[in-house]
Amino acid sequence: MPRQTDTRARARDEFALRLAEYGYLGVSLDDIAKAVDVKKASLYHHFPGGKPALFMEVADHYTKEASSLLQEALATPGTLYDRLFALAASYAHGTYNSALSNQIYYAIRHLEADQRATVSQAYVRGLIQPVTDLMAHAVATGELREADPGFLANAFMELAAIVHPPQDGLAPAAVDRLARDVVDLFLRGAGQDTS
């Protein structure tokens, strides 16, 4: 039994790595089988639906992990600034894999309608709605100006997504500075007009 679970997890993780780098059409089950050191038939044993089934497993696993990290960031004590910084820092330090997120989004067009709906609903429920709820609360309490909370959530997450993991050994303090810059930029643009 442990071998089966291990094969499933290794196939899922290998598919996720390749999906993030090459996109859905750039991933083949032959390559996954070779990387995991199993026969392709073994992948079909674990994922009878083939590539779409393996993709669904990747999307589900990613959404659950990312949602957990998001909830952790949003549970940060303190102010709206503190929670937004925790969220932006998760992007900056590479905790949140925006490359994989983007490829999951792009790949759903290759799925059947029911699979697309499943992935989309889980993504919205786990990753978009909590940030939208945070923005709705901030609008209701006057921390942010009157604006559509969904728009504010998407705007913030798009800004945060440009802060990707550091390259060339950028110091953690410099990475945190990038995350703070994102939050400052967002709050200056979406904050209450005090003039």
TrEMBL record:
Gene3D superfamilies in the cross-refs: Homeodomain-like, Tetracycline Repressor, domain 2
Limits of the HTH tetR-type domain: 5-65
InterPro entries per the UniProt record, alphabetical: Homeodomain-like_sf (IPR009057), HTH-type_TetR-like_transc_reg (IPR050109), HTH_TetR (IPR001647), Tet_transcr_reg_TetR-rel_C_sf (IPR036271)
Keywords, alphabetical: DNA-binding
GO MF annotation: an example: DNA-binding transcription factor activity
DNA-binding residue intervals: 28-47
Pfam family, any one: TetR_N
Protein name: TetR/AcrR family transcriptional regulator
